[in-house]
Write a structure and sequence with these properties.
This protein is α/β, with parallel strands linked by helices. The chain is built from 15 helices and 17 strands. Strand 3, helix 3 and strand 4 form a beta-alpha-beta unit. Helix 11 packs parallel to helix 12. The chain starts with 12 loop residues before the first strand and ends with a helix.
Length: 428
């Protein structure tokens, strides 16, 4: 596999699969540009080498071909602004203007010598797209129209992938968020480029390196913090982590399925009745393997699922009828913090409660703080999954952990032990 950092892109047309699936408001304004910022270092490296860049991405879920609200043309002004912005001087991966790793060739820290021209073409294949790509000069960027305006993209159609491949002389996959999809632009297209002309971008390199560090090179003690609503959503990741972690902390709605499985009273708390045996099986497996599963000793409870609900505290296994657990309690915060503080490797996927509501965000905020404190003491911490990432951003800890993953579903499948098509296509 070719190393992106060592590759010289001079006079090359780099066809990059990025993840520009960003949220837009009703005025087509970007409300969170994290994914776009994450791609900037890769783009800048290629431009600095004297290459040109062709960007392809999807946006939303268009069902019946082209639709204005899903057009990538809405992203052009902000992309141009990002590429021409004075570089962040901190040099820290994940910083405001500098997501992703920094390399010797990364031009961050210097203002641009010349403005980067960003062009847009309202198609992603065919004569119009090919002409636009071939007319690019070194230092210029072309953004293609939404890949998913063609159904062949999600079908992994080889002919469609071949048409995309015509646009570039080298292929770069920098879209970790779509690496678990066997789509034309993420997996199939790599076949059309020789091995020395296909590679991961800087973001993808960092994602894979960080995930590998946790999965296969973790220093012990290794704490995995798993939250969210359902055991069924996290069963595979928990099973895989039982082979690697020393401690597994379980929070969020899924904790109450474990509580009930052990005979506890959980009131109206979320529970998967059909997963009680599975929960008991996981606890038994953990005991056999010497892995300590930590469940919250107490909970913040509410009389309804509402931001204005009456709230109280109760042992997590003795919640009164009519009440539901919506966050971990003070004792659980202390319990989990102690485990995190003594860990050398930390994986966090999923919140501890309904942190979107102010009354029920203390537990998730407590975990974010503990992970940041352990990181400051030398632990390696990886945060992934949409809600966990949203939490560290919301509470101001994103720059205090080792790595924040951009891929929710992709990261989850990676830690479940699955082969991701977008990664396999480059490594094979």
């Amino acid at each position: 596999m070719t190393s992106f950092s060592q590759y010289n892109f001079a006079n090359q047309r780099a066809l990059i699969r990025v993840d520009f699936n960003v949220p837009l408001n009703d005025k087509y304004e970007i409300t969170d540009d994290t994914r776009m910022r994450a791609a900037v270092p890769t783009i800048r490296k290629i431009l600095a080498d004297g290459g040109s860049v062709i960007l392809m991405s999807h946006l939303g879920r268009p069902k019946d071909g082209p639709a204005d609200k899903y057009s990538l043309k809405h992203l052009v002004p902000h992309l141009k602004e990002l590429l021409n912005r004075v570089r962040n001087l901190t040099g820290r991966p994940g910083g405001v203007d500098s997501p992703g790793p920094q390399t010797a060739n990364d031009p961050r820290g210097k203002p641009a010598d010349a403005l980067v021209n960003v062009f847009f073409v309202d198609d992603c294949i065919g004569e119009k797209a090919e002409q636009a790509a071939q007319s690019l000069k070194p230092g210029q960027v072309l953004l293609l129209e939404n890949l998913r305006f063609y159904k062949e993209e999600e079908k992994g159609d080889k002919t469609f992938a071949g048409k995309l491949a015509k646009l570039g002389t080298v292929y770069v996959n920098d879209a970790f968020g779509t690496a678990h999809r066997a789509h034309a632009s993420t997996a199939v297209i790599a076949e059309f480029f020789p091995k020395d002309k296909r590679m991961f971008g800087l973001l993808m390199e960092s994602e894979v390196k960080s995930a590998e560090k946790v999965l296969h090179q973790a220093k012990k003690p290794f704490a995995a913090i798993i939250g969210g609503a359902k055991v069924s959503d996290k069963i595979l990741i928990i099973e895989n982590l039982l082979e690697r972690a020393t401690d597994i902390i379980i929070g969020g709605g899924m904790a109450y399925t474990f509580m009930k499985a052990q005979g506890g009273k959980i009131g109206n708390s979320l529970c998967e009745e059909d997963r009680l045996e599975m929960a008991l099986g996981l606890l038994k497996k953990a005991e056999e393997k010497g892995v300590c599963i930590h469940l919250p000793s107490d909970s913040i409870i509410a009389d309804k699922f509402d931001a204005a609900a009456n709230d109280s505290t109760a042992p997590s296994n003795n919640i009164p009828d009519g009440w539901m657990g919506l966050d971990i309690g003070e004792n659980a915060c202390e319990q989990f913090t102690n485990v995190i503080h003594r860990s050398k490797t930390i994986l966090w996927n999923g919140p501890m409660g309904v942190f979107e509501m102010a009354k029920f965000q203390r537990g998730t905020k407590c975990i974010a703080k503990a992970v940041a404190e352990a990181t400051a003491k030398g632990a390696f911490s990886l945060v992934g999954g949409g809600d966990s990432v949203a939490a560290v951003n919301q509470f101001g800890y994103a720059d205090k952990v080792s790595y924040v993953s951009t891929g929710g579903g992709a990261m989850l499948e990676y830690f479940e032990g699955k082969t991701l098509p977008g990664i396999a296509a480059i490594q094979d």
